[in-house]
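S., here's the first fold you wanted:
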Amino acid sequence: MITSIRYHPLIERDSNAHEYAPLFVTTDEAAVRRNHSFYLEEVVNGYFRLCATKTLTLPDSGTMTVACPVCSNRLENITAGKHTPTQALYRCRVCNK
């Protein structure tokens, strides 16, 4: 059970394939927004909202591959992204068994 929202800043592993991996976990959203273009917001265990600090910098979320912050497996995109800083919702099939 999550008692506070967790944020996972993302780094790009492969610019051609739009592959991203989480760096670490923190509860300080302001610091993450200041220093990273993309991050995951985790409110419920195993479910992650993709966020961007600038709307225009976000690639098509449907083509993004994001690694799970817990197990490193590929996250499954379960909702379409919007044209706002808060984007698609992802879940981990492995962690949610």
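And the second, which I think is the more interesting of the pair:
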Amino acid sequence: MNVINYKIINGDNMRKYYLFSIRREFYNVYKKNSYVLYKTLENLYNLKSENLVYGISLFNQICNRIDKTNINILFSQYIRINNDKYLINEGKEETIVTIKNPYILYNTNMNFPDSMGRIYCLDKYIFVIDFKNEDYFWLDEHIVLKNKYTLI
């Protein structure tokens, strides 16, 4: 394993983002009140094992499964570590993307990695959470904000 991989997996100042595909009807409900969605997903993230059946049921009501086939195609230009894991090392971005059925996990050195914006073309209802830093946002809003202030 080279230095970049080790830093991405184990770095203290790395961001760990979970990207969830939210069902359209819940997107419409939580778009203006994302704090409630964040707290709901945080509670599911911290759920005790005895409540797991309830948690899975609630999660499946709110979130879609990740379309792994299309996401894998989207990231095919990057270094494939295994079936569902990619290394992105472009410019200043050092990221490992792990594609799971319930979410996409980003371990990255960036506050907003450029590669994250690519996912928006496949799914318009992505909610992003960094549980450790209590940070959350809708991917579409972040893309709009980032593009609004980008010099052309």
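Why I say that: Residues 88 and 95 are 5 Å apart (CA to CA). Strands lie at 15-21, 79-82, 85-90, 93-99, 104-108, 126-130, 135-138.

Talk tomorrow,
H.
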